[in-house]
Amino acid sequence: MMLQTKSEISLWLDKYNIKNYTINDDLTVDVAGSVNLYSNKLATIPIQFGKVTGRFSCYHNQLTSLVGCPKEVGGHFWCDNNKLTSLVGCPSVIRGWFYCDDNLEEDIEYLRWVFSKKVMAL
User: Fold this and answer.
1) What is the pLDDT of residues 49-69, one digit of tens each?
2) In terms of CB atoms within 10 Å, which end of the chain has fewer, N or C?
């Protein structure tokens, strides 16, 4: 379930020590810098990131989807060591490396396709 107010979103961002953020009118969150959500036992990301200018790390959690992940990442994107059943929510633009190992084998062909599109977008 996505958080519904700017104040709920702000509290969540502060809890995970995310700095230099802007909460937009549509409740998406842009971050000037990196986001580190790794190893927090997260089952979901309850906010929607927009653009993150640095890297985005959500590895070693319990995520089953990438819903909430940024639409655009200016650096590397780590989502490995989760329980992903789908890549729905994967960023459209990743300007660094895309790490998504130790998830479901069924997604390997899709991962190859996504990765090839990300490389072409660079």
Assistant:
1) 999 999 999 999 999 999 999
2) N
Is residue 38 within 8 A of residue 73, CB to CB? The reply is no
CB under 8 A, 24+ apart: contacts of 44-47: 44/1, 44/68, 45/69, 46/1, 46/2, 46/3, 46/12, 47/2, 47/3, 47/9, 47/12, 47/13
∠ CA 27-46-39, nearest 5°, is 130
The model carries a pTM of 0.85
Q: Distance between CA 15 and CA 17 in Å, rounded?
A: 6
Three-state DSSP at 89 gives coil
What are φ and ψ of residue 9, in 5° steps? Answer: -65, -45
Give φ, ψ of 15 to 5 degrees: -60, -40
CB 100 within 8 A of CB 111: yes
The type of residue at 95 is R
